From TrEMBL:
This protein's name: S9 family peptidase
Segments for region (Disordered): 76-126
UniProt keyword Zinc, yes or no: no
Residues in the signal sequence: 1-15
Native organism: Lysobacter arenosi
Peptidase S9 prolyl oligopeptidase catalytic domain mapped to chain residues: 473-679
Entry-linked Pfam families: PD40 (PF07676), Peptidase_S9 (PF00326)
Keywords: Hydrolase, Protease, Serine protease, Signal
Length: 681
């Protein structure tokens, strides 16, 4: 017989014992929280940020706002809206309010004589507008009511207005929506864009909105777009980015303009470099110095080099327009913020496999590293009293926010604490020679790795092509490693983090030296005694899919491949995806530069050399790398009876966002690799 009190004591002891860690699995994708968009109050006392989590019932990612003190206290969720999302939180200059973007419908307004009845929220179209809430949280009110919503915004220094970026409306005010959509008519050189759709004559322009009344004034107009507004600290000017000229779609010559915040004011072009001055792709806005005399921004190379040239930190004098590079280092720099004294700039600096926060002297360019080690920092914020926070992570930790202090980082958020109950695979740097060149990458050993034992191995290939694998948390790698796979992630020539010459080595020559480099990475891990040469797979998304196709067309050793959002017939992609400008700059045109297009289309034109069982995946509404690329390669392999499969994700753009689709993709990937790398043929 068990004594009751003893049984209770035993159960209590068992409950107090933490459960042993388990391996990371596909189901954990739905538990990951995506922390982003940190903003410090002017006095540095508190931080507001956004957190995206999976709403399983609605099968969508939902974003809410959070607040935490700089001392780490009073962490609080500010919004909890299951059917809408809040993003881009910004403190008001006086610290009493928080503005943000939300796609929530406006508050119900009962009709006269029908108390308690109002519009059906379910029928409201989800369009982002600027909202305002008290700094401590609570009831919010909608500030803007643009028919096409608000794309971006910033506060005025006095806190009485916001500058917003708004796309021209589809139809004039008061004109009802037609029963069926009207025909799409365009004369634009670039006529489509992923996430936006077909591009017509509508453009995005700058407006100023009064916070109290909601009254809006249009500041800019014309056949061009304005983006990335930034209000000067003295309140006199708004800076923004725009491409101008006879046909802005044909070039990448972005420039910074300034204008007074009033209707009818004349714009002034500030930068004149004949290349990209603050391309929006870099997710960085103009940064005003505290005295409003200078603007820090990013400058790239001439148009010819598209995304291959590193983005350099530059400063322009607002009065004279004289610009200079602050610290030319042949590496990409992003997200510059001025120190309150105007003597330094805080920025993110990319190096091989890491991106770290640095403090850069605005005059001398002298640099000091503020974050250290194998990590990837993605964003930062600076307060008016020189407090700094960074959004970043590493191999075992998704992005969280930390205070940057002399003694090191101090964590302020912890939204992925459940990972402490997961056994994660180790990630280590690797380096090897390929074709006489030093190449680097990362190796993930299987959970429970035993020295001397060989494992089925997956080569992962990154997108871009000018991008790199870094020391950041990669959920799919952890799933593969938990299931007994080694993962090899190579940064071949064409990757960022190693300078201009390393990146442009694949310019107009895709699928050549980068194929050699990724294959050399696999051979290196075979030589380490880890990878089983008879059980090799590979895969990637976007350029990772493009390069996957190139590898299997040139090397038959791989037993399974997964090509996501890839393409191999560049003749067909010309005019079908969103990159007509980039194709013309790098490859030329199909009717004049056949040799270039033949070389870029090698996997499709030589598909008869492919023997690797390959799954092709794509997103139905992707205008970045449309499904045509996957469909053609699937058809080519199907015609030759090579084992293949085509998977199309409905209604998705280039980056999948539906949680069930993300889980489905990884589940299918794992099953495909298991079938060809683990099961007995």
């Amino acid at each position: 017989m068990i004594v009751p009190c003893l049984a209770a004591t035993t159960l209590a002891a068992q409950a107090a014992t933490p459960a042993p860690p388990t391996r990371f699995g596909i189901a954990d994708l739905d538990r990951l929280a995506d922390v982003a968009e940190p903003d410090l109050s002017a006095d540095g006392a508190a931080l507001v940020y956004s957190v995206s989590t999976v709403n399983r019932a609605e099968d969508l990612a939902q974003t809410d706002l959070w607040r935490v003190g700089f001392d780490g206290s009073a962490r609080k969720r500010l919004t909890n809206t299951p059917k809408s999302s809040e993003s881009r939180p910004l403190w008001s200059p006086d610290g009493k309010s928080i503005a943000y973007l939300s796609d929530a419908p406006p508050p119900r307004k009962p009709e006269v004589g029908k108390e308690g009845e109002g519009r059906d929220d379910e029928e409201e179209e989800e369009i982002s507008q600027v909202w305002l809430m008290p700094a401590a949280g609570g009831a919010a009110r909608r500030v803007t009511s643009f028919a096409s919503g608000v794309d971006d915004y910033v506060w005025s220094p006095d806190g009485k207005r916001v500058a917003v970026i708004v796309r021209d409306p589809e139809r004039p005010a008061g004109v009802p929506e037609p029963k069926n959509p009207p025909p799409i008519v365009t004369t634009r050189y670039q006529f489509k864009e992923d996430g936006t759709g077909y591009l017509d004559g509508r453009r995005t322009h700058l407006y100023v909105v009064d916070i109290a009344t909601g009254r809006a004034e249009q500041i800019t107009s014309g056949d061009h777009d304005e983006l990335l507004p930034a209000w000067s600290p003295d309140g006199k000017l708004i800076a923004y980015v725009s491409k101008r000229g006879v046909d802005p779609d044909r070039h990448l010559n972005y420039d910074i303009y300034v204008v007074e915040p009033r209707a009818g004011a004349s714009e002034r072009q500030l930068t004149t470099f004949p290349g990209s001055d603050l391309d929006p792709y870099w997710e960085t806005r103009p940064s005003w110095s505290p005295d409003s005399s200078r603007i820090a921004y990013l400058q790239s190379g001439e148009d010819k080099w598209i995304y291959y040239a590193p983005w350099q930190l530059a400063v322009v004098d607002v009065a004279s327009g004289k610009a200079r590079l602050v610290a030319p280092i042949d590496r990409c720099v992003t997200k510059p913020h001025w120190s309150p004294d105007g003597r330094h700039l805080y920025a993110l600096v990319e190096r091989s496999r890491v991106t770290l926060v640095e403090k850069i002297d605005a005059d001398s360019g002298e640099r000091a590293e503020l974050t250290h080690g194998n990590r990837f920092d993605y964003d930062l914020a600076v307060s008016g009293n020189d407090r700094v926070v960074v959004l970043g992570g590493d191999d075992a930790h998704p992005y969280e926010i930390s205070a940057v202090e002399p003694q090191g980082l101090r964590a302020l958020t912890d939204h992925n604490a459940f990972l402490r109950q997961r056994t994660l695979a180790s990630v280590e740097p690797i380096a090897f020679r390929s074709d006489g060149i030093d190449v680097e990458g990362l190796l993930v050993k299987p959970v429970g790795y035993q020295p001397g034992k060989r494992y089925p191995t997956i080569l992962r290939i990154h997108g871009g092509p000018v991008y790199q694998f870094s020391h950041e948390f990669m959920a799919d790698w952890q799933v593969y490693a938990a299931q007994g796979y080694a993962v090899v992630a190579v940064n071949p020539r064409g990757s960022s983090g190693r300078g201009f010459d390393f990146a442009r080595a694949i310019y107009a020559d895709w699928g050549n030296v980068d194929v050699k480099d990724v294959v050399a990475g696999v051979e290196h891990v075979i030589g380490m005694g880890i990878a089983d040469p008879q059980r090799l797979g590979l895969g990637g998304w976007s350029y990772g899919g493009i390069l996957t196709n190139a590898v299997i067309a040139r090397d038959t050793r791989f037993k399974a491949a997964i090509s996501g959002a890839g393409a191999s017939n560049m003749y067909a992609m010309y005019g079908h995806d969103q990159y007509v400008r980039e194709y013309t700059l790098e490859l030329g045109t199909p009717w004049k530069d056949r040799e270039q297009y033949d070389r870029a289309s090698y996997p499709f034109l030589h598909a008869d050399r492919i023997t690797t069982p390959t799954m092709f995946q794509c997103a139905q509404d992707d205008f970045n790398v449309p499904c045509l690329g996957a469909e053609q390669m699937y058809q080519a392999l199907r015609a030759q009876n090579v084992p293949t499969q085509l998977v199309v994700y409905p209604g998705q753009n280039h980056q999948l966002t539906v949680p069930s689709y993300l889980s489905d993709r990884l589940t299918r990937n794992l099953a495909w690799y298991d079938r060809y790398l683990k099961e007995t043929p």
